[in-house]
Amino acid sequence: MRYKIVTTKNIVSLSSGFQESQRREPGIPRMGLIYAPTGFGKTTAAAWLVNRENGIYVRAVSLWSPTTMLMAILAELSIAPPRFPAQMLQAIVAQMKLSQRPLFIDEADYLLHNPRMVDAARDIHDRAELPVWLIGSQKLEKQIAQRKIVAGRISQWVKFSPCDLEDTQRLAKELCLVEVQVDLLERLHQAAKGSIRSIAVGLSRIEAFAKVQQWNEIDAKQWADRPFFFTWQVDYQEE
């Protein structure tokens, strides 16, 4: 398997949304939200975008507080944290303005454990006047929508959708070192329920099997009834 970012429809949607958030129009907020069930490739896509845009990337954890959140961002900026949180926020804003680097906060659902963390992200956006993107689950989208002061600043709501068959075919073509026939890809797509993570796992197993058999291509008949992955790997629906 090759390791690369494949331009699926979700990647195209994310790229377009981010470009819109970069526009400097008066009165238009520049926050963005990426949301989807687990397994839909949010973090991988965000990492690709962060690298492309030289962004600041932090991943929230359950034990974060407003202070540790600010310290994590400062660490990514290679800045020694000042003594007080207000000074930390000021240092972040100053460096973002200087470098013109956008901020991405992954696992942003954790920010909702303490409303002050959401407010801190909003303050950074307002004062730096640069894109600030939150990445999280479908629950995050619903909860943010209820916080009008934050929701009003999000101009780009990017929902990652299940991969369709065309995406699956593109993934196979660009990632696999063997040719996977359409009839087998149709079965994999159906079994994966659109989860890009599960599709990648399935493609890896298909390729490994074909290599053992010394085949350059493989179809549904040759794969027979072998499992693509464990059943729990496609149980992506969130409560």
From TrEMBL:
Origin superkingdom: Bacteria
Identification of the protein by name: Transposase
SUPFAM superfamilies, per the entry: P-loop containing nucleoside triphosphate hydrolases
Domain called ORC1/DEAH AAA+ ATPase: residue spans: 30-143
Lineage: Bacteria, Bacillati, Cyanobacteriota, Cyanophyceae, Chroococcidiopsidales
A GO term for molecular function: ATP hydrolysis activity
